[in-house]
Amino acid sequence: MHPIVHHPVVKRLSELFDDTDVTTRLASTLTSLSPHSEELCLRIDAVICTSDSIRSNVSTANDKSLSLGWLSVDNNRALTITPKQVASLESPVPSSCNPQPGHAGGPETPQSIPVDKSSPRHKAVGGLRPKKPSISAVTEDIDSDNDADAESCLRPANVRIEPSIRQLQSDTRFPQRKRRANDSATPTLQPSSIDKLISGIWRQVHSPVTLSVTFPDRSPEFSLRTGVSQEVFRAINGLCKKYYDQNRSSRALEMVVQAYWVECYEARIASIRLEHPSFTNAEARMTALKEACSTLGWQEKELRNRMAIWRGYKEIKDSGGWASLIFAGTGVYRFCKYRIGFDNGLTTRLRSIASSLEVAADTLHPGWRDILRVVSQSGPCRYSGHPHEWVTVDTGPAWPLSTTYAHLLLPDGFNYRFMDDCVIDQNVFGTTDPRRIPGVDPEVCQICKEKQSDDVISNHCTCFLVLFGGIRYPPPIQLYSTGSGKNNGVIARCEFERGTAIAEFVGLITNGIDGLDVMMGGTPERPYQIFQGHTGNFTRFINHSCQPNSQFQKFYWCGVERILVVSRGVPAGSEITVDYSDSYWKKLKKNCLCGEPSCRFTRQVEPS
Ligand SMILES: C[S@@+](CC[C@H](N)C(=O)[O-])C[C@H]1O[C@@H](n2cnc3c(N)ncnc32)[C@H](O)[C@@H]1O
């Protein structure tokens, strides 16, 4: 990467505007430049304008630009500006070079998209935000606070319909990046060591790591001199994964044996006291230690030091179960060595996630218990099937999802089929996908105009990744019992940073459903509904909050509209919530239980 990217001024700008993309965009722009003979400079300009001008993204003749300074790209130093230069640089900003919202302008913006000036609600924000094209929008960003507007734009202009009961709409704005609090503000709380240990366990259990106790075959032979073809590179990647997994498995095996060793050691001490009734406890311990040292070939002190760490492994396993130890990341060694936070509620925290962790381990890594064969502790999986077919509870074993709806007395019980992609209701739409936008080339991204494809090799568009950070698979979430009248909800096991996609809203693509929960999609001319009554993904279980930490957002991929759940900043361990909208609640005979001080629907229904 070019050194200028790390220049303190660039870093400061990035911090100031809370935009980590500044460096990335600068780096990619510099890389894209053809070789040059003259000294290159990075000029840092500012524009003085009215807030109206920013909101509407239209520059006026009154806007004044001034140059603050520049950095020499070639020798990475800051240059000052002479008064003469300042005079020549200060000028009204011509519209043609007005930076577009969400972009710093310049060559890294592949395509300038016309800004819809008629909509003052399209507020220009941080670098991740795409501009809304006038016809084929890339993301819908209709202000959620204005329900009437949001609804009217989803229905034909000449038709007045009473909204179907309990419609959800992707009617909120893209999560705007938070301004970082200035230095004088209250310092933010850093996650504790326990938080880090626990989030490491959840990350690992939701990673594609394959724990296996078998050894891989002999490695293939490669020659770099003959070049690296796609096949060879794929094989090398496979090898990396294989040995990474193997290393993880060996580490897990090692910790399992060591935790078990502590149990055996205590049991051996008890046996020695039975064999030698005259021995004190200390003598029995010494005897057991000597026996161990003679086999291990270690000094007593060496063994005592290691034992302290092994005791930590055992404590983790005793509270969080074997899964917590097996899926603990490499940090667990340091954690046990220095016993960071052991006395500060670790046991309680691990105990409360033990069964949820087992659900994730059993359903996502069904072979994980094989590792326990080494100490004859393996047993059958307790939880089988889809990871979201279990409702986790803090206080005990998880419940099968269907049993949590027994109170509804449904004639055929609660049956929900989990699937990863939407299915089109052929009775309504035949073979046509109503989400497809007519007249749009499905192979071309509407933002960057690059080729878009589901095939990683042919795809050249990175807009989704840049905007939403890519959808994590498997999603680090679980269904959980809220323990309130809300019944089930969705809990984030890992953090979802603000602006990242949590999942696509998946269900049956249909139309004409009335009186049931549906998500409205499409346009007034081509409406469709996403129905999650019988089939879909976990987004079906996301509850409402009047102060939600997530929102629905439209995105277009390969010419097809997709509705996403996007994080507004979801910390690990918190419930994922969205705002169902006023129109949804108007039709629901229930009080909202979100518990927010700003709750809008606490007193919808009078107590009987
Ligand atoms: C899409 S479902 C969400 C999952 C649901 N909690 C469950 O257990 O199946 C929507 C229903 O959940 C309940 N719900 C969601 N958020 C709620 C809230 N904040 N207060 C009360 N009930 C809520 C309402 O009954 C609502 O109709």
TrEMBL record:
<protein>
    <submittedName>
        <fullName>SET domain-containing protein</fullName>
    </submittedName>
</protein>
<dbReference type="InterPro" id="IPR053105">
    <property type="entry name" value="Class_V-like_SAM-MTase"/>
</dbReference>
<dbReference type="InterPro" id="IPR046341">
    <property type="entry name" value="SET_dom_sf"/>
</dbReference>
<feature type="region of interest" description="Disordered">
    <location>
        <begin position="87"/>
        <end position="133"/>
    </location>
</feature>
<feature type="region of interest" description="Disordered">
    <location>
        <begin position="168"/>
        <end position="190"/>
    </location>
</feature>
<feature type="compositionally biased region" description="Basic residues">
    <location>
        <begin position="120"/>
        <end position="132"/>
    </location>
</feature>
<feature type="domain" description="SET">
    <location>
        <begin position="475"/>
        <end position="581"/>
    </location>
</feature>
<dbReference type="InterPro" id="IPR001214">
    <property type="entry name" value="SET_dom"/>
</dbReference>
<dbReference type="Pfam" id="PF00856">
    <property type="entry name" value="SET"/>
</dbReference>
